Amino acid sequence: VTRQQDMYFLTRNGRLSEHLVDKIILQLNRVYPQILTNKEAEKFRNPKALLHIRLSDLISHLQKKGDKHCQEFYRALQINAEQLYNDLPSRKILSKLGDFGFGCTINFDWNWKSKSLYQL
Predict the structure, then answer these.
(1) Tens-place pLDDT, residues 50-63
(2) In the prediction, which pLDDT does 81 show?
(3) Where does the record place the CARD domain (predicted)?
(4) Dihedral of CA 45/76/51/17: which sign?
(5) What domains, with CATH codes, occur in the chain?
(6) How far is 87 from 62, CA to CA, in rounded Å?
(7) Is 73:24 a contact under the CB 8 Å cutoff?
């Protein structure tokens, strides 16, 4: 399972509301301005662009910046929409692996995902 599958899952119509996407963008911008600058946040919050386009562009932008940036997006998603986060294809795989004793802690899952499941 890759970030691309998670991105497809998240950008399908109705998964994320405008308000929720704005909260995630603002969290990334305010808490981690090195991850998302003011100018970038404004771009991804532009109400003139379709929501799924903005979300796709945001995820692609973060992927280009590296794993740490993507991890913070996932963390913001978990904080703001835990059920949706738990329903991600990548989380479903990790929870199944956890049933077999492979994924013990969230920190392990983050590191493990960034090094194996999420290589594009």
Answers:
(1) 988 898 899 999 99
(2) 94
(3) 1-92
(4) negative
(5) 3-117 (1.10.533.10)
(6) 21
(7) yes
